[in-house]
Amino acid sequence: MPTTDPTGLTLDAICAAQRSIAPYVKRTPLVRSDSLSRRLDTNVYVKLELFQKTGAFKVRGAFNRMLELTDEERRRGVVAVSGGNHAQAVACAAQTLGLQALILMPETTPRNYVEATRGYGADITLVPTIADAFAAVRAFEKEGRVFIHPFDDSLIMAGQGTVGLEILEDVPELTDVIVSIGGGGLACGVAVAIKTSKPEVRVWGVETEGADSMSQALAAGHVVELAAITSIARTLGAPAVSPATLALTQKYLEGVTVVSDVEAVESLKFLLERLKVLTEPAASCTLAAAERLRSKFSPESHVVLILCGGNVALEDLSRWQPSQASE
Q: Can 6-57+153-319 and 59-147 be said to share one CATH topology?
């Protein structure tokens, strides 16, 4: 995978991204939850990024990256790798900007993601695994297409970091943010936006067991490639983080909490029943992490959970009973 110099991600770049993508994305709501505040005995808010266009935060980075393409690059089209939300984001941005997009998706991609991506006008090629998809990208780059990486690009991370700017605007008394990690683009963008503006705020990452490439990289001190993604939180399924996102995580995050699929599903059900929002396990895991971290918060804390996506297939939801999710 290509790497990006971590110093390329700055607060100025994130502020520039906010101005650039404003005509194309939603400013999603952030609300205080009485149910979660009582449950965790502190002040808890949810950033409802699942109400973003395409149902997830990814469209922010996709637009920011693709708006920087030259006229010649636009004519050649783009290629992306994704088994989830990045696919829809690139397809949506390409359709809006008048570009042709090709998305390489693993064969295990849920049907709702494939259909939604195709609905935005993208061409789709299915390959056996996500690793195969990354390997196949090189041939399309040689043909002239621009690779829109799901996370390892400073423009992508800057676009995702605009979530952090909105959180600071809505909760100026912010003390803590809990954010999901797949490849690390969202967490790093949010962390740079928030920590550069308000260094005392703590940013906590979360992964699920079986999709924990960042926590394994932190433990090893270098990038680790997972042999397979076994978590039901497929949209956290980056086979490896990048040197850039690892370095930024080491610098800006308090740590990464790894929760089980069972915890993520139980949190998903609670959010659906009490807050009336249907999240992906990749988003509900932030509540599971907050439960584990509750001793870190006081009654005076102001904690934001980023609910980063809500693209759930009903057939998957029917299977995600806590007794059936993998421990």
A: yes
Q: How far is the C-alpha of 104 from the C-alpha of 87, rounded, in Å?
A: 8
Q: At what angle do helices 185-197 and 243-252 cross, to 10 degrees?
A: 40
Q: Where are the domains of the chain?
A: 6-57+153-319, 59-147
Class of domain 6-57+153-319: alpha beta
Structural element, H or E, at residue 102: strand 101-106
Q: Could you tell me the fold of the domain covering 59-147?
A: Rossmann fold (3.40.50)
Q: Tell whether the model's pLDDT for residue 2 goes beyond 50.
A: no
* pTM for the predicted model, two decimal places: 0.94
Helices (H), 22-171: 34-40, 58-66, 71-76, 85-97, 111-119, 130-142, 154-170
Q: Is 6 in contact with 247 (CB distance < 8 Å)?
A: yes
Q: Residue length, the chain?
A: 327
Decide if pLDDT at 325 tops 70. no
What does the pLDDT read at residue 7? Answer: 53
Which residues does residue 176 pair with via DSSP β-bridges, in sequence order? 202, 303
Structure tokens at 46: 């949810």
